[in-house]
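Page 37, top half.
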Amino acid sequence: MIHPLGDVAYVWPYYAAALVAYLMGSIPFGLILTRLAGLGDLRQIGSGSIGATNVLRTGNKALAALTVLLDGGKGALAVLIARAYGPDFAVIAGGAAVIGHLFPVWLRFRGGKGVATALGVWLAIAWPVGVAACATWLAVAALTRYSSLAGLIALIAAPVYAYFLADPQRVQLGLLLAILVVLRHHGNIRRLVTGREPKIGRHA
């Protein structure tokens, strides 16, 4: 007998996983932490982003570090929870968590740049790729002092690492995350090209 819901009966768990991961990814930890610390609305500071780099522009390094951990942690946690139901669920959750950070429903779909969350996803879904991507971020940031450039190169390199260290499904996820992060960094890319992008620790 054909189920009255057809294919929906089969795919609804994937939709549910994507929705839960999206909501987890959309938690704006940078904004929450700066408000709790009495630093005002993070969106009115520096670049206006809700990520750790902009939190650092408040002068609170500890808060910026905590933002990195929480933003990365929500991506990793979404993957780890979904992975209990299968590798396909983990991939879907990873992508949805990053989309949630980039376009959070709570902030009218104006979120962060997604680098920390994407790196957290990689560490949970294919840790060798995650470690390589994090090392790339650290190396580029140390050499150039540009957080945005470090994030772009790390996420663009991730699917290349996945090609050698993971499987085709992870490569596809990596390409999606890289495209999303590059698109979200369009303003940073323009500033990098014109030499107006602020370096780490400097105000925008």
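Page 37, bottom half:
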Amino acid sequence: MKFLSDIRLLLLGLWLGAAVFFIGVAQSSFAVLPSRELAGTVVNRTLMILNFSGLGISVLLILTSLFVGKVANRFWLWTERFLLLIVSAACAVGQFVIAIWLQFTKAQMGGKPIDEVAVDDPLRVQFNNLHQYSEWMLMVGMAAALLAFFIIANRRSGTAAVVAKSSTTTNDPFDFSKEFVKK
């Protein structure tokens, strides 16, 4: 089970790292690329990859959590599953709801770059609000993934402690009788 737990931690850690890296890519794209439209296209494509991978990884981790059920505390196991469900929901909503609304809103602008639309235009306001919701979905997914990561990591170290505790003859931390036995 240690191997499965390590793989689960690796997958979740990779997605969290990719999400943090995405934030840097998004900021760098708008700072470096010549047009904001081009930067938005890069960010949109990268976010799509992040959302699909988050959805796939969280579903896979929920499925693999069925194999660790006998070893784990039921409360923490269901908490982990719930958090992973939040990650998958955040990625799905971000990709299949908000991103589609963003594309639809952008199409309604008539193909004009967003910066050319007036700030008080209802479509620009809607676009900005949807963009904000997209950021919130990513933050919710990242927070849930981070909490799930700590739960999985704690269970991994907790099971090692249970195995170590069961192999000793006493639970008394001040029992030094083994240390003074002649061999």
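Margin note: The radius of gyration is 23 Å.
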